[in-house]
Amino acid sequence: MNIALVGCGRIALYHLNALRSIGQKARLAALVDSDRKRAEAYGEQYGCKNIFTEIQEAAESLSIDASIICLPHHLLSQASMLFLEKGKHVLAEKPLGVDTGSLLKAVEEADKRGLVFQAGYVRRFMPSYHILKRTVEERKEKVLRHICVDFHNRNKIATPWWREKGKAGGFYVPIFGSHYLDQMLWLRRATPCSVYAAYQNLAPGTVEGETDGALTLSFCDKTSASLIFSTTVNNISMHQEIIFTEKHTFETGSNLLKIDGIPQELPACNPFLLQLQDFTDAVEQGRPPSVPAREALKILQLINLAGESAKLGMTVTVSRL
Questions:
Q1: With a threshold of 0.90, does the pTM exceed it?
Q2: What is the pLDDT of residues 234-291, one digit of tens each?
Q3: I want to staple 197 with a disulfide (CB 3.0 to 4.6 A). Which of 72, 181, 263, 310 is the partner?
């Protein structure tokens, strides 16, 4: 499978390393970036001489079968649609856009053409989360409460567009918190009935979106999930997820899983490689990917509803996801 990587920024390196490791199942066929010199630098490093500066031109290329899209959030849906319209499969970085209407059109285009359209919620491929979900399902336990606390000083902005609310769709929640929202819904396979959020921007000279706050999803079975975050704390770095079921307590993170306080042994792996393998397998086997874009659409709807809740200062009902 010949894959074009679109957007030669920070996250692209993880995908490029996965492409380098996957073997004969896929190859890097093209690099696409508005900055030709940056694309050429990546091309020299990863052995790719086919460079495009226009997404449309890359989408029309007969030498490309699929794309991995690593653009700022406000460009993800549009770029995905350009490839889907030309019959190309797409793996796009989360949260796949800022506007649910544009993303819905891209999802419907993929469905109409029978194409694989995968969302880059890579944490689902981390062993800790995969084992957690499998354990909960095997034991047939009901998730009662899911709490995520994430405190980090993130005033050092990794890329300039993170600063702009119009390009990122906010700050913490779409860039970081979307991963945890995805996990909350993925773990319980249920749709929340309402969402309440309270946001603050405690670094107005640094970013335009929310830096600190809390978000709670309430489900129709009287259970809940909460995300508490701060990106302006000093001298502390803490990430903790605790999932309470009817009989057990799970603590998890990127490289951590404890069941009732007992650490579990986790296999070493590259989640970006596992994600890419799932994408290529889905294309080859004609099956849906493990993280279909339609599920990412639900997360984007929640992100926007949470923003509405924070703006209004009240709980917002989730009518349909």
A1: yes
A2: 888 888 999 999 999 999 988 899 999 999 999 999 999 999 999 999 999 999 999 9
A3: 310
Of the candidates 96, 112, 321, 85, the one whose C-alpha atom is nearest the C-alpha of residue 220 is 321
The DSSP annotation for 58-105 comes to: HHH-TT--EEEE---HHHHHHHHHHHHHTT-EEEEETT--S-HHHHHH
Each domain of the chain, given as residue ranges in start order, spans 2-121+273-290, 124-265+300-317
**If you count them, how many residues does the chain have?**
321
Find all residues with CB under 8 Å of 262, minimum gap 6, and list them.
none
Give the rounded distance of the alpha carbon of 307 from its chain centre: 18
What CATH number was assigned to the domain covering residues 2-121+273-290? 3.40.50.720
Would you identify the CATH topology of the domain 124-265+300-317?
Dihydrodipicolinate Reductase; domain 2 (3.30.360)
